[in-house]
Specification:
Blueprint lengths: L10 E10 L4 E5 L5 E6 L4 E4 L2 H5 L4 E3 L1 E4 L6 E5 L2 E9 L4 H5 L18 H12 L3 H21 L3 H4 L3 H12 L6 H7 L4 H12 L3 H22 L6 H7 L5 H12 L3 H13 L6 H4 L2
GO molecular function: DNA-binding transcription factor activity; sequence-specific DNA binding
Keywords: DNA-binding, Transcription, Transcription regulation
Pfam families: HTH_18 (PF12833)
């Protein structure tokens, strides 16, 4: 069930999920240029940073998960039945919603960020609400309350990131990562080094890494769109449209981020894609 992310402060994507009778296994969470929030409503979601940690039984079980920008795949245990809400958030909203910049929200599953008591209250309220629309309304109301309190607070730490860094982030996102770092630094009126340092402090990754994540997000959503339309994805076409040198470059990115080639990932994600997974940002907010 896809919710209206445009109503959610900082929302990029808002999705409810529920399934039963599925084959148990491991799901690869795709690296992302968004913050990830999961409210698990059918037992804790079990996650690990690596396959080795998962095999060794070091998966972390959480009812509420908040993770920062991720440069590697997350390994998520796929149980026979699950339900919950997954939210993708613009990292510019981190200070208002969580009281810290996105750069202070760990991408590591074993060092998950604790949202505090309000996260627990939200999880309980969402779990007690019987309909998806009601759950989405509860999340939106809770986030709006956090934003209102941040607006009343004094100082950039609560209110938002530096204006020039926020502007550079918006430009980078609008270009889907296809912009030079020198252009971004000039847009922020900072030297390249000053810009890199300020950007990393705010988001937890450097501008080149963020651009790489945004390009990869664009590529995965383009491939997923072809599968949903029952077309054979053109890896060469997607690579060209998303700013990669060639198909081999795109395949290397898949192996680097997910450890598998595009064809294997598409087969693994086919069911998820068919029920609305990996939508583009335009589809998320339409």
């Amino acid at each position: 069930m896809v919710g209206d992310a445009t109503r959610l402060p900082g929302g990029v994507r808002l999705v409810g999920y529920a399934s039963s009778g599925q084959t148990q296994g491991v799901h690869l969470g795709v690296p992302s240029a968004t913050l990830t929030v999961i409210l698990s409503l059918d037992g804790p979601v079990r996650v690990a940073d690596t396959a080795e940690e998962l095999s060794a039984g070091r998966a972390l079980g959480l009812d509420v998960l908040v993770a920062g920008l991720q440069e590697q795949a997350t390994h998520v245990v796929r149980p026979s039945h699950e339900a919950g809400v997954q939210i993708a958030l613009d990292p510019l909203a981190a200070r208002a919603l969580f009281g810290v910049p996105a750069g202070q929200i760990s991408a590591s599953m074993t060092q998950a960020f604790d949202p505090g008591a309000w996260g627990g209250r939200l999880w309980q309220r969402v779990g007690e609400t019987p309909t998806w629309e009601g759950r989405f309304d509860a999340i939106t109301e809770a986030f709006e309350g956090r934003l209102a309190r941040a607006d009343r607070a004094v100082g950039v730490a609560r209110g938002g990131p530096r204006r020039e860094i926020a502007g550079a982030w918006r430009l980078l996102t609008a270009r889907r990562g296809a912009i030079s770092m020198d252009t971004l630094a000039a847009h922020a009126a900072l030297s390249p080094r000053q810009f890199r340092d300020a950007f990393r402090a705010e988001f937890g990754v450097g501008p080149k890494a963020a651009a790489r994540l945004l390009r990869f997000e664009h590529a995965t959503t383009r491939l997923a769109a072809a599968v949903r339309a029952r077309r054979t994805p053109s890896l060469a076409g997607v690579a060209a449209d998303c700013g990669y040198a060639d198909q081999s470059h795109l395949s290397r990115e898949f192996r680097g981020f997910l450890g598998v080639p595009p064809s294997v990932w598409l087969e693994q994600e086919r069911r998820n894609i068919q029920v609305g997974g990996h939508l583009s940002r335009e589809d998320w907010t339409s």
